[in-house]
Write a structure and sequence with these properties.
Elements: E1 16-17, H1 25-34, H2 40-47, H3 55-58, E2 64-65, E3 67-68, E4 73-77, E5 83-85, H4 89-99, E6 104-107, H5 114-121, E7 126-129, H6 133-147, E8 150-154, H7 164-172, E9 177-183, H8 204-210, E10 215-218, H9 225-239, E11 243-248, H10 271-287, E12 291-295, H11 298-301, H12 305-315, E13 319-321, E14 336-339, H13 347-354, E15 358-362, E16 383-386, E17 390-393, E18 396-399, H14 403-412, H15 442-452, E19 457-461, H16 465-468, E20 481-482, H17 493-503, E21 508-514, H18 515-521, H19 525-530, E22 536-541, H20 567-571, E23 575-579, H21 582-594, E24 600-605, H22 613-623
Parallel strand pairs: 6-7, 6-8, 8-9, 9-11, 10-11, 12-13, 12-15, 13-14, 15-16, 19-20, 19-21, 21-22, 22-24, 23-24
Antiparallel strand pairs: 1-2, 3-4, 4-5, 16-17, 17-18
Helix pairs in contact: 4-9, 6-7, 6-17, 10-14, 12-14, 15-21
């Protein structure tokens, strides 16, 4: 363990080799500092400190300290006598990302970030250049949903402010993304010059990101940089929300001084409160006649799906998901009923859930879309609602009880095992016989796609009918359905496929996207081609914003028609299919299965008034508020 000069504050440890014969450490340091005037200010501080006489430590162990004066690289000393080269600020940040599973960083370079991009390029982390910053942000979000942590790197303001939308989505839906932004050097900011990309003040971008992240920092001090990097990235992992790191370009290669010992900061926990909430929950569940679990997205975000499965196995309590948490468990599970989304969803699921006398909501977001535009009827007086931060039982609130602790506690107490009863089940997958020349419909499209899925297919659905039409599809494995079902930003799915396939190359993305959303971020297929990825893109081509038309229509809902099947000709990569009929869809899907290493674009042309039943119900509810 490294030893540092102690006092009321931690500070620099300077170069010397001190043996046990009583060498005068103070004089050695003085001579070395004199050889490099840049350290004069530090010497003045050291010279006034009583702790400078470290002779008492010599008897405890051999102190070995070295400094590389020319390269400005510091070395930590260890009790064993082995020396480890200290990291630059850029090195340390990369090391922290890599240690937490990040193998790809998405982004668009700019002059304020070029030096850090160079450090990334020579590191073990691969840089994924996207066409646009928003694409990079969405890709990093999807990567985080699969791997647990994602990262995006952009330049100052012109890049950073373009990913505020994707960062807001990650915050709203609890996705741990590290936003890294280059910035003007600290030596360039004297007298507030009008540097390019600057908006108002040098901290304008920082102030913006403080509103949409759980932690933020500017790495402008080598003495605190390591501590700040650890603090913000640990916050992302702890809270499953995005964080912001601003890196002035002149600080990338400055040596960081990790003179502190990183410490894990546990979430607040009160065992007495936990025991009390478990006691109350046990009594309510055991005395209920028809308990139901609503499995929310936080079960995935915090990696406790296995605990949920064990609880279901122990109790035989049936479970439903929400639109945001679809595929939180395998949808083939015998106790899985389907997606509960109020009156928007299947009637049999809604009726079973709403007739329960004990709803156990685990990590569920109580949002308008999750609740079917507030058509859901959930009685708080019959609910146990556990979140990542607290537990509500009926009208009681138990603070500082986390979802993970609560669920693990439920596994340790005696919950009665239920007899098997008839519950709603997802509709069985039925093989379809395409009719030659018959016009394609939304209903047929999703029924056929349902038979196309396998355990290695991950569905990424954009907002609108791309998402609502997919609610009744059967996902084979857990966490193989991604959608922005709360924040509902258009344009997530295509760049999201980059993040998913890079995070797990064993999964092939099936992207469901409307033509309007595709025109926002579809250019990221160029990135997919560059990095030899192979998503299957299903474009719901209904000539515009199909979600908005039923609410309030006008020419503003139209988009220009593209020949989407010709995009591979532009990219010089991939395969395109123009689909108007059932048999054309069949041929395209079969060929897409064969072209395992190619991008496949299926331009599925749908009538503008053809919508899924779920979308019709949702837009009817939304139209009342427009």
């Amino acid at each position: 363990m490294a030893k540092y000069m102690r006092g009321d504050i931690g500070f620099f440890v300077f170069a010397a080799v001190v043996d046990k014969r009583g060498s005068n450490l103070k004089e050695i340091i003085k001579r070395i500092v004199a050889a490099s005037p840049r350290y004069d200010y530090t010497w003045r501080i050291l010279n006034n400190r009583r702790t400078l006489d470290l002779a008492m430590f010599i008897d405890e162990f051999e102190i070995r300290l070295l400094i590389a004066l020319l390269s400005n690289r510091f070395y930590l000393l260890e009790k064993s006598g082995n020396m480890a080269v200290a990291k630059t600020i850029g090195d340390y940040l990369i090391q922290k990302l890599y240690a937490n599973g990040v193998r790809h960083v998405f982004g668009v370079p700019g002059d304020y970030a070029l030096s850090f991009f160079h450090e990334l390029e020579i590191s073990a982390i691969q840089v994924i250049n996207t066409c646009d910053e928003q694409g990079a942000g969405f890709a990093a979000d999807a990567y985080a949903r699969i791997k647990g942590l994602g990262a995006v790197c952009v330049t100052y303001c012109v890049g950073g402010l373009k990913i505020t939308n994707t960062t807001a989505q990650a915050f709203a839906e609890k996705s741990a993304v590290v936003v890294i932004s280059g910035a003007p050097g600290t030596n360039e900011r004297i007298k507030s010059p009008l540097l390019h990309h600057k908006v108002r003040d040098f901290d304008t971008q920082l102030k913006v990101f403080e509103q949409i992240t759980v932690a933020s920092t500017v790495l402008d001090n080598p003495q605190t940089a390591c501590r700040e990097i650890d603090r913000v990235i640990d916050a992302a992992l702890c809270h499953k929300r995005p964080v912001y790191i601003e890196l002035p370009r002149n600080m990338v290669s400055v040596t960081a001084l990790p003179y502190y010992l990183p410490q894990e900061i546990p979430l607040p926990r009160d065992d007495n409160t936990l025991n009390e909430v478990l006691f109350e929950a046990k009594n309510i569940i055991n005395t209920s006649k028809k308990p139901v679990i609503i499995a929310g997205i936080e079960l995935h975000r915090f990696g406790i799906q296995d605990d949920l499965l064990q609880f279901i196995e122990n109790t035989h309590i049936p479970v439903a998901a929400t639109p945001l948490s679809k595929s939180v468990i395998s949808e083939h599970h015998s106790r899985y009923m389907g997606v509960y989304e109020g009156a928007i969803g299947r009637d049999e699921v809604r009726e079973y859930v709403e007739s329960s006398d004990c709803l156990i909501l685990l990590g569920t977001f109580m949002t308008d879309i999750n609740l079917g535009m507030f058509t859901a009827h959930i009685d708080q007086g019959k609910s146990i609602y556990a979140t990542s931060e607290k537990v509500y039982i009926h009208y009681h609130v138990y603070e500082n009880v986390s979802l993970g602790d609560f669920l693990k506690g439920l596994l340790q107490i005696k919950i009665n095992k239920r007899e098997d009863v008839d519950i709603p089940r997802p509709e069985s997958i039925q093989l379809l016989q395409p009719v030659t020349g018959k016009k394609i419909t939304i209903k047929y499209l999703y029924q056929r796609l349902n038979t196309f899925l396998d355990k290695n297919t991950v569905v990424i659905a954009d907002t609108g009918d791309a998402m609502f039409g997919a609610m009744d599809m059967t996902i084979h494995n857990e966490t193989e359905f991604l959608s922005p079902a709360y924040y509902a930003s258009m344009g997530f799915a295509v760049p999201g496929s980059l993040g998913v396939q890079l995070a797990n190359p064993n999964l092939r993305p099936l992207v469901l996207v409307g033509d309007g959303a595709f025109q926002m971020t579809g250019m990221e297929l160029s990135t997919a081609a560059r990095y030899q990825l192979s998503p299957i893109i299903i474009i719901l081509n209904n000539s515009g914003y199909g979600t908005e038309r039923p609410m309030l229509d006008g020419r503003f809902n139209d988009v220009r028609s593209w020949e989407y099947s010709c995009i591979p000709d532009i990219l010089k990569a991939g395969r395109g299919f123009n689909i108007k009929t059932e048999d054309q869809l069949e041929e395209a899907l079969q060929l897409s299965r064969q072209y395992t290493k190619d991008i496949c674009i299926l331009d599925v042309q749908i009538d503008s008034d053809d919508k899924s039943l779920a979308l019709q119900r949702m837009t009817k509810a939304l139209a009342k508020r427009v």
